[in-house]
Amino acid sequence: MSNEFLLEIIITVAILVAIIVGYFIFKRSSSPQPQSSTPEKNDIPEVATQEKVNVVPQINEEPEIEPLSEIPMYGTEEGEFVVLTPTPEDKELTDRRKSDKTIQKRPVPKHGQITKQNFSEFAGERILVAEDNIINQKVLLGLLAGSGIELVMADDGQEALDILENDINFLMILMDAHMPRVDGFEATRIIRANPQYDHIVVVALSGDIASDDIQKMKNAGMSEQLAKPLRMESLYEMIYAYTGKETHNDELIDAKMAKSLDTDVGLQTCGEDEGFYREILTEFMSDYGNSSDILGELLRSHNLYDADAHLLDIMGVSANIGAHKLGEIASNMKLALSDTHELSYFSLFDQYKAQQARLMQEIKEYIG
């Protein structure tokens, strides 16, 4: 019995060994064979391959969510709105303002006295007025009544902003600096931050003329300032400078061009004190009435150094009294003094002499 029992044990062990060996042979045969016998090449590519499986499909899926052709770019309808490409509703406005960004302001020519009738040259223009003072509103309305200029009134900065949200067809905004709710400074900053209003000039209405007040207005985005109380001539020149309309009032443009003395400038220099201005003109006649004789003698003696000093003096005094033409000729002569070969300053001297004679006559008529 013992031999038979031992034999059974041996057979059982043999069967178990065979099963184990067979299992490992099956396991090995079912595993993928390596591409190379090098361990580094057997492991690393498998990691890289796994990364590609996880990442690449995510990249390929993005265009399916939002294709590139559907993403708004500059030049599409949305992009053009950002850069203020005109909409059909604003086409007329855009056509009228299309050159404003290159020609913001034009020079104002010399002109005669401004009357209410002169404002009719700007008929059709629209101006937004932000002013909380009812009397000041009435002054502007009365000043431009019958001119054809449309005034839209706002009682404060907030009301002006509300108007602009629905109507941007304005040449300019006359903006009072100090108002309730939203003052002129804050309203202007909001306006200048919105590109839809780039074509509108903001002009400050304020009695503040100190340099720091002027700088504060500029910092807020106000392009110009009209002082209070408002002068008719200043308002005319402001509108003229920023409208593109041609004026055909020859009397307005040429009235003072033929004159040698601009009394308006002279009076402004003298603080609108006419008595003081007449006194200055009297002194000018006494001190410089014979300036052409003095200058002629200096030129003939080739004393160009003293001639230069005399012309510089004339330029400064002429600017103060409003003698623009004499000052311009003096400036040209001063430059010509360096031309010692052609002596071109002698031809300018003839102009100077004739202009000074006309100036003296106009001064006498004004004082007399």
Compile the SSE list and pairings.
Layout: H1 2-30, H2 39-65, H3 77-82, H4 91-97, E1 126-130, H5 134-143, E2 150-154, H6 157-166, E3 172-176, H7 184-192, E4 201-206, H8 211-220, E5 224-227, H9 232-242, H10 250-254, H11 263-269, H12 274-288, H13 291-300, H14 304-321, H15 324-336, H16 345-367
Outline:
This protein has 16 helices and five strands.
Structural class estimated from helices and strands: alpha/beta
What is the H-and-E element order?
A: HHHHEHEHEHEHEHHHHHHHH
Going by CATH, the architecture of the largest domain would be 3-Layer(aba) Sandwich
User: The biggest beta sheet, please?
Assistant: 5 strands, parallel
Q: Kindly state the percentage of residues in helix.
A: 55-70%
CATH fold assignment of the largest domain: Rossmann fold
**Which sequence of strands runs across the widest sheet?**
2-1-3-4-5
Give me the Rg, rounded: 43 Å
Number of domains: 3
Give me the count of strands.
Answer: 5
Task: Kindly estimate the percentage of residues that lie in beta strands according to DSSP.
Answer: 5-15%
Mean pLDDT: 75
CATH hierarchy class name of the largest domain: Alpha Beta
Report the end-to-end length measured between terminal Cα atoms. Answer: 165 Å
